Amino acid sequence: MERIMAPETKSTVPSPAAPAAGSPSPSSNATAAESANKPGVDFIRARIMEDNATGRYGGKVHTRFPPEPNGYLHLGHAKSICLNFGVANEFNGLCNLRFDDTNPTKEEQEYVDSIREDVHWLGGDWQDREFYASNYFEQLYEYAEQLIKMGKAYVDDLSAEEIREHRGTLTEPGRESPWRNRSVEENLDLFRRMRAGEFADGERVLRAKINMASPNLVMRDPTIYRIRHAEHHRTGNDWCIYPMYDFTHCLSDSIEGITHSLCTLEFVNNRELYDWVLETLGVYHPQQIEFARLNLTYTVLSKRKLIQLVKEGHVQGWDDPRMPTLSGLRRRGVPPEALREFCSRIGLARADSTVEYSMLEFCVREHLNAHAARVMAVLDPIKVVIENYPEGQVEEFDMPFHPEDESYGSRKVPFSREIYVERDDFRLDPPKKYHRLAPGVEVRLRYAYFITCREAVLDENGNVTELRCVYDPESRGGQSPDGRKVKGTIHWVSGAHALPAEVRLYEQLFSVENPNAAPEGQSFLDYINPQSLTVVEGLLEPALAELAVGRKVQFERLGYFCKDKDSTAERPVFNRTATLRDTWAKLEKKG
Ligand code: ATP
Ligand code: MG
């Protein structure tokens, strides 16, 4: 299986397989041959351009994103959302949001609400075209009767188990049901009585009458209606028979005038049935096109597994920032722009591939580097006393929020005799090339002063509890007064002004690349990373008290962080969205 990796450094720009979001639309007059050969155009866009060139759908492009409301959307859905809404945008077309809600027992309003929020957040705009397969139940029922009248569907009394036994295998044809040749009248009567609620769940089904010897198992008289005495989240108790996916999906596409029905590869074999239903009924016929689903390292992208993580309490909810759900990513601080860029970079393929998680982080860093304000926070504080700084004195330094973008403005940061710096920015016994604080070493406090460490105070266990330093008043603003070089610059927070905060540091939820590949007797749950969440008590610069929930900032030298909804007025909570690339850590490892 192909591997899609993140670019190593920012200077190597990978060639995206698909045009980036917001890139100019491909010309609609390009000929089929031209477009198919156009570099950077994926096979779906090439196909659409070809259809536009031949006038197949009158130049119209109409897609849909069809989630089943039985869980929260995840990164895989993001790929589908970006594709469906992206293609519609690029070709001046439309994209519908359609809830594929044909299973009354698994669907809930909560999921509908979350899906709407997530699609919007990602930038999908369905305007007034929010549809539900359940809106078409009556119409679908009529189509089913029509098939019966055409002799193309029959009521089968076999049990689900028996139907499976009759289906045959890839190498053996199936066997026909003894009920396959019921008369149209009998079928109609039974189907109507199924609708009327005369039978119990599983007692009878309606099957399409196609071909029990078809090499394609999907075509061996697939079930198209089943009995389910269950309340539906939208239609209540109006129905006790529900149409199956393969029957519902193609007809919903047809009813909505979809032109290109984009779905994932596992539906390749279902395309024959998609086409059969529409052709047999003689209705408007969209084109189904399959693409490879997104697989990502260190995570699971299956609703069933995500539900299990939530319901069994392995995470703190659907929007736990470790979850690959869109709500989790949003809460973690991943900007929608970064997700769209990610979807554009991974491109579209007809064969399965696995994308490295680092690719997503690369896109997140790239966006936040350009768009997040810089502030200072110390997450593992060690106290520094600046002995020659007057007691009780406070001064303020004006610091820009963004070094490369003046429009971000600046804020005042207080400075005083006692400050905190990062424990990791001090070494009692510094290795070579370590340019941060150490006994006798001078460093720059970001935008403030040069300080030199005079002494480290240790407790009885040898742990450093405090650093005694002196500062050079001539270095105000962090400028060298006499041209002497100070290599290291570290961040700091004034002790008297520091804002304590809970900071949540996240790592991968799973400790192996492919948690789906658990051997017999084990499950993906066995690979949950016990270190996926570390909570620390940090000290922030006071300006952060004002920050709104959901806002993203860079804590200088530490990473990107997002203010969490658990914050209170007294105690802000921040989630680490991503670390910065730490070149020192790499050097030290190599050391
Ligand atoms: P799951 O198998 O996890 O339950 P699903 O595919 O059944 O997911 P749906 O709600 O039916 O979930 O998906 C809505 C749309 O999103 C479908 O068109 C589906 O093909 C697409 N989709 C789901 N997962 C992925 C993925 N990993 N990569 C790309 N598209 C996906
Ligand atoms: Mg599905």
TrEMBL record:
Primary enzyme class: ligase
A GO MF term: ligase activity
Chain residues that bind L-glutamine: D100, Y245
Domain Glutamyl/glutaminyl-tRNA synthetase class Ib catalytic: residue ranges: 60-369
Family annotation (Pfam families): tRNA-synt_1c, tRNA-synt_1c_C, tRNA-synt_1c_C2
Biased composition, class Low complexity, residue ranges: 14-36
Tree of life domain: Bacteria
Keywords recorded for this protein, A-Z: Aminoacyl-tRNA synthetase, ATP-binding, Cytoplasm, Ligase, Nucleotide-binding, Protein biosynthesis
CDD domains: GlnRS_core
Coiled-coil parts of chain: none
Binding-site positions, ATP: 68-70, 74-80, 264, 293-294, 301-303
Domain tRNA synthetases class I (E and Q) anti-codon binding: 489-564
Reactions this protein catalyses: tRNA(Gln) + L-glutamine + ATP = L-glutaminyl-tRNA(Gln) + AMP + diphosphate
Residue ranges of domain Glutamyl/glutaminyl-tRNA synthetase class Ib anti-codon binding in the record: 372-472
Span list, region Disordered: 1-37
InterPro entries: aa-tRNA-synth_I_CS, Gln-tRNA-synth, Gln/Glu-tRNA_Ligase, Gln_tRNA_ligase_bac, Glu/Gln-tRNA-synth, Glu/Gln-tRNA-synth_Ib_cat-dom, Glu/Gln-tRNA-synth_Ib_codon-bd, Rbsml_bL25/Gln-tRNA_synth_N
UniProt-listed HAMAP family: Gln_tRNA_synth
Protein name from the UniProt record: Glutamine--tRNA ligase
Natural source organism: Desulfovibrio falkowii
